[in-house]
UniProtKB/TrEMBL annotation:
InterPro entries: DUF3459, GH, GH13_cat_dom, Ig-like_fold, Ig_E-set, Trehalose_TreZ, Trehalose_TreZ_E-set_sf
Pathway assigned to this chain's UniProt record: Glycan biosynthesis; trehalose biosynthesis
Sequence similarity: Belongs to the glycosyl hydrolase 13 family.
Catalytic function, reaction form: hydrolysis of (1->4)-alpha-D-glucosidic linkage in 4-alpha-D-[(1->4)-alpha-D-glucanosyl]n trehalose to yield trehalose and (1->4)-alpha-D-glucan
Pfam families in the record: Alpha-amylase, DUF3459
Residue stretches making up the Glycosyl hydrolase family 13 catalytic domain: 94-490
Active site: D238 (nucleophile), E275 (proton donor)
GO cellular component: cytoplasm
Protein name: Malto-oligosyltrehalose trehalohydrolase
An annotated GO BP: trehalose biosynthetic process
Transmembrane residue ranges: none
Length: 571
């Protein structure tokens, strides 16, 4: 049977394997037809243009073409003993499927999973893998949310990847985008009142207007489908601040309730992580505490404070984070903007986190991520401009913080490859609009047009692929070993994974050039400056756990050369 929601249509047909069939109108704007077949598309009213199924599970010919029936029951899973992984105590590895390997498929990515298991991460987070127009792209221009991008390997490819991850003890998180649809192939508005307004990136969803109940159901069913049918362990919810929802029960809270019920049914933990620009702890506050009940959210403020401390950059949204206490504040309180003035927004921003109540594992800490690299004009990583000692200091802060650490692919060996913005829209006009828009955006910040990579050039994708010969090479091998050590210590030393924010103590130089982070009996001392310093360790130095460029401590202090750190256990 074929079904589709088209409440405003007076006639709907389904074309199945080349033959058209009239569909019968049912309750609530749903249409149905008792037909069997494989390839299908819908025709609305008297328009003879076939449209893909809004709830398609497979688009083998692209987002503009007919859909294909897909049976979840036909895949042979081998992860029946998988009981999942909770997020507290975990380490996340963020990767883009198309540039993680030269092949850019789920199957070639599987060949590199042993590297991740050896690194010590617990969760693999995939950037969006749903269908978008073209072959290459970041995935945030998806238009058919339930269909897996065919060039990556389609739905069976994703299932093989998840199955292989579970076999290595790795949980899988999937980045999903519910705040907008891409500019090419978004036919939802032909079927019903799916759209309402626009975001900075495209058409937004109707979450609270007439007909919005089914639109909300569309989102909820899609989210549950990834978790249930693809055995995914959690979702990263893109830019939830762009979800416009004035209903008494916000979509995010509704999603939290339904995911909790599914988790109980499946008998394994399921995780919801939000990306939000609101600096609002309500997202990760429990529902009985008046929040939405999500499990975690990204925390850009720590990234920004670290970035400024390591690079000295103070343009764009970075100026406020040049404050000497910015890094210390974000380590203690999560957010830098807590109802305080944001010069970038030209208004007050944020709300304080109650550190007595909220645990640190509900906030993600990262030195780099796909946005903070890819949305730079040249897509340059920190390793392109920051010396190894400062990279090591930044990594030490992230892994010794009370938050859930996240690593962006290749960061663990200071990859020399950039990660640039790219797309591959077949429509020449749209491709040119994206190309010129990108160059125009960065020209306002002083970049010459010729210095901004062409996002439509296949060479931009090639440049952005990881070079897997690097992890064993000089200059990369040492950083990789440091990451392995820091992740291992986080697992072995309970003080480092302790999520109690109220227990975190930070000492810092008046100018912010050095920092000592107290994690119970452990001390992380970092010198971000270009001159040697002596820092206090508040106790008799004991075991040296990790270091970069610095000798062991001497008594209750440590002499740190420029761009170095020590992590010690004190007595």
């Amino acid at each position: 049977m074929f079904t589709v929601w088209a409440p405003e249509a007076d006639r709907v047909r389904v074309r199945v394997d080349g033959t058209e069939h009239e569909m019968a109108a049912g309750a609530g704007g749903w249409w149905q037809a008792e037909v069997t077949g494989t390839e299908y598309a819908f025709l609305l009213g008297d328009d003879d243009r076939p449209l893909p199924d809004p709830r398609s599970l497979r688009q083998p010919h692209g987002v503009h073409e007919q859909s294909r029936v897909y049976d979840h029951g036909e895949f042979g899973w081998t992860d029946r003993s998988w009981t999942g992984r909770q997020l507290p105590g975990g380490v996340i590895y963020e990767l883009h499927l198309g540039t993680f390997t030269a092949g850019g498929t789920f199957d070639t990515a599987i060949e590199r999973l042993d590297h991740l298991a050896d690194l010590g991460v617990t969760h693999v987070e995939l950037l969006p893998v749903n269908s978008f127009d073209g072959v290459a792209g970041w995935g945030y221009d998806g238009v058919l949310w339930g269909a897996v991008h065919e060039p990556y390997g389609g739905p069976d490819g994703l299932k093989r990847f998840v199955d292989a991850c579970h076999g290595r003890g790795l949980a899988v998180l999937l980045d999903v985008v519910y705040n907008h649809l891409g500019p090419s192939g978004a036919y939802l508005d032909r079927f019903g009142p799916y759209f309402a307004g626009r975001t900075d990136w495209g058409a937004g969803l109707n979450l609270d207007g007439p007909g919005s109940d089914e639109v909300r159901r569309y989102v909820l069913d899609n989210a549950l489908g990834w978790l249930r049918d693809f055995h995914v362990d959690g979702l990263r919810l893109d830019a939830v601040h762009a979800l416009v929802d004035k209903c008494a029960t916000h979509l995010l809270e509704e999603l939290s309730v339904e995911v909790e019920a599914l988790s109980t049914t499946l008998g394994r933990p399921l995780t919801l992580i939000a990306e939000s620009d609101l600096n609002d702890p309500k997202l990760v506050t429990s529902r009985d505490g008046g929040g939405y009940g999500l499990h975690a959210q990204w925390s850009d403020d720590l990234h920004h404070a670290l970035h400024v401390r390591l690079t000295g950059e103070t343009t764009g949204y970075y100026p406020d984070f040049a404050a000497p206490d910015a890094l210390a504040k974000t380590l203690r309180e999560v957010f830098f903007h807590t109802g305080t003035w944001s010069s970038f927004r030209e208004r007050t921003h944020g709300r304080p986190v109650d550190t007595r109540v909220l645990p640190g594992h509900r906030f993600l800490a990262y030195l780099q991520d796909h946005d903070q690299i890819g949305n730079r004009a040249a897509g340059d990583r920190l390793s392109a401009t920051v010396p190894a000692g400062l990279l090591a200091c930044g990594a030490a802060v992230v892994f010794c913080s009370p938050y859930t650490p996240m690593v962006f692919m290749g960061e663990e060996w200071a990859a020399s490859t950039p990660w640039q913005f790219f797309a591959s829209f077949p429509d020449p006009e749209l491709a040119e609009a994206v190309r010129t828009g990108r160059r125009r955006e960065f020209s306002r910040h002083g970049w010459a047009a010729e210095d901004v990579p062409d996002p439509m050039d296949p060479a931009t994708v090639v440049r952005s692929r990881l070079d897997w010969s690097e992890p064993g090479a000089d200059g990369h091998r040492e950083i990789l070993e440091l990451y392995r050590t820091l992740i291992r210590l986080r697992r072995e030393r309970p003080e480092l994974a302790d999520p109690r924010l109220s227990e975190v103590v930070v000492e810092t130089a008046p100018d912010g050039s050095w920092l000592v982070l107290h994690r119970d009996a452990l001390r992380l001392a970092c010198n971000f400056g270009a001159e040697p310093v002596t820092v206090p360790l508040a106790g008799t130095a004991g075991e040296l756990l990790a270091a970069w460029g610095a000798p062991g401590p001497e008594g209750s202090s440590a002499r740190l050369p420029a761009h170095s750190f020590v992590l010690v256990s004190t007595g």
